[in-house]
Design a protein that fits this description.
The structure is a homodimer. Helices cover 34% and strands 26% of the residues of chain A. The first copy, chain A, is built from 13 helices and 18 strands. The first copy, chain A, has a six-stranded mixed β-sheet with strand order 2-1-9-11-12-10, with helices on both faces. Chain A has a six-stranded antiparallel β-sheet with strand order 14-15-13-16-18-17. In chain A, strands 3-6 form a two-stranded parallel sheet. In chain A, strand 1, helix 1 and strand 2 form a beta-alpha-beta unit. The two termini of chain A are 37 Å apart.
Chain lengths: 406, 406
Amino acid sequence: MARIVQKFGGTSVADVDHIKAVAHRVKREVDAGNQVVAVPSAMAGVTNKLVDYTLSIGGADDTGEYDVVVSTGEQVTSGLLAIALQKLGVGARSMLAWQVPIHTDSRHGRARIMDIDRDQMEKALAQGQVPVVPGFQGLCPENRITTLGRGGSDTSAVALAAALDADRCDIYTDVDGIYTSDPRIVAKARKLDKITYEEMLEMASVGARVLQTRAVEMAMKHGVRLQVLSTFADVAGTLVVDEDEIVEKELVSGIAYSRDEAKITLVAVADKPGVAAAIFGPLADAGVNVDMIVQNVSADGKATDLTFTVIEGYLDKAIRVIEEKRQDLGYSEFISDSNVVKVSVIGVGMRSHAGVAQRMFQALADKGINIQVISTSEIKVSVLIAEEYTELAIRSLHTAYGLDAD
Amino acid sequence: MARIVQKFGGTSVADVDHIKAVAHRVKREVDAGNQVVAVPSAMAGVTNKLVDYTLSIGGADDTGEYDVVVSTGEQVTSGLLAIALQKLGVGARSMLAWQVPIHTDSRHGRARIMDIDRDQMEKALAQGQVPVVPGFQGLCPENRITTLGRGGSDTSAVALAAALDADRCDIYTDVDGIYTSDPRIVAKARKLDKITYEEMLEMASVGARVLQTRAVEMAMKHGVRLQVLSTFADVAGTLVVDEDEIVEKELVSGIAYSRDEAKITLVAVADKPGVAAAIFGPLADAGVNVDMIVQNVSADGKATDLTFTVIEGYLDKAIRVIEEKRQDLGYSEFISDSNVVKVSVIGVGMRSHAGVAQRMFQALADKGINIQVISTSEIKVSVLIAEEYTELAIRSLHTAYGLDAD
């Protein structure tokens, strides 16, 4: 007997028929002798509608009320899924966050889970029942409803799995797993059987948005085995696990990309101590996250060019900051460019292998693709290139690292 | 300073713009120095949609889950109304039934309020805040959500008014008060400034569905002064109060009617003790409520005709029972007719005046309208007539009792 948390995304519970199908998925695990806790999202589109209501009133100053409104989507699907399970003869009952309770802090709209009381759920599980716990919501010390921020249902599921010492947390979604690259671009992309938490985090943060970063971090911290799989196809998914569980590590597990990047170059910045702080301090103060940074060594020791990237949506804000601080920064001009894409090769195997970055640079050079900025981490190499080369670069790298399916 | 509970019906909170308008209504009372508790219904149509969800899953065996689903409509409008009030500078916060708490029994889907804890609301009121409490919902001893049955928001509002010793409970709806008769039929119908609880109950039970009968009963029991008024028109409404508050009592306050009636006549029933019990016992067992009953004295002392009315929707069921019990009842034949209407004149003043019924019979006779069945109570005279005479009868009676507007 295993204990499994099954989380179902918005497209998986999009309407009553989908909820019935989800109930069959739960029943199958129960019939196999497993204990199941089900965690539904809101029906696809419902949370957006509820958020729109609050916005069209003028936006919620009191985010506590925002939470009262937007948390109802998951409450509805939880009640409906419990009914659907009962119709299949599976004992089930909904447990809202205030009933479990799932204790969070008081940061409405973006609360963090502090503690989950497992007693009610254990009692139901011991009676052979399926607790249906709505994702996304919690209860703060002031006895009010909180929500965990968009996509918080993944986090709810992982937190419940950790609290209940579950054997696995299955994340049902509309894709059937994690691929070596975006299948819309790379026809030969392969589904991965397993991937490490670290790789999944890098994949997510560079644009492969299947799992919430926060949920993966929590799973890694608590050693929760995650599985990403499709509600709609009856095939095995991808397991996200600890590195120890993967015996034969691939050199590179996947090629990810993000079009959501913009590049700024400050020309002829003074080459002296404190300049970087003078630039990136005000940007951080303005809430602009800087990603990649490159500073060349200056030829004359006096002035240098400084290039960095920001999320494209923050480009205007970043430019405003740079213009305001022109006097302090003392650059001669700045150049911005949002026609760029960040392409990354990711793999825990590269820790123990040299030459991974070199293979990337060579593959891109062979196609005549110019690299504008490079950044590396222990398990990732990222390059910034012109956006027009996106598909060519990704496909070439996919082949170069031997990831293509037969 | 007065303490007022303001309840807003589904059409009053039908969308975000309506909710903003409702917030202005609340603000006006607050600005006048009053303490206000606001009780919104769900947006018009939303509860039906939620009920449909549960039905299309196959109907909720576990009505606890039904309540989890359908109670979300009021939760949404409560959060939105709190936001809208805050936007107008009015301190407000939603308090769901489990937060107040509003304690009910455990009869999911049709729970009864047992006790309301006033502490949280008193605390908010003392701080100059408006508690926004969703109608229709409660919390049962098992710590689960309950609902009070359709139209339960009126009941919630009256119960809150009683618990908080409110000076008044204002029921905002899409009509601006209680009229002497249905304005769609009687162009000269007048809005009543005041009406007694007893009259309101009779008006409601014979088809003038503005207030839930249950809410009026509760208001009468606890002496809560009710006001029915329009969200959309800025005019005084109708006060529903104790008889003592009405100095000059009208002989007749209104003419009500119900088309939702059907008549059954059993021909040649044995005229002996126990026959009525033999007939109405099985009907009651089958859940069929019988309203008016007439039994003639038999000429020969052996057989008589027995006529009674039921709600039209129960006619088929009633006929089935009668056919099944044919042997026991020993009638020669039965006749059913659903082309009938019940017309009632209502007024507490008739307690102290004779001749009210006579005036009714005369007015109908003058128009050539045949009376099929008569029933009377202390403050009501009802007659059953052919449905085709509905409008003629109501208008004639309205004039006969001097109710016509100038």
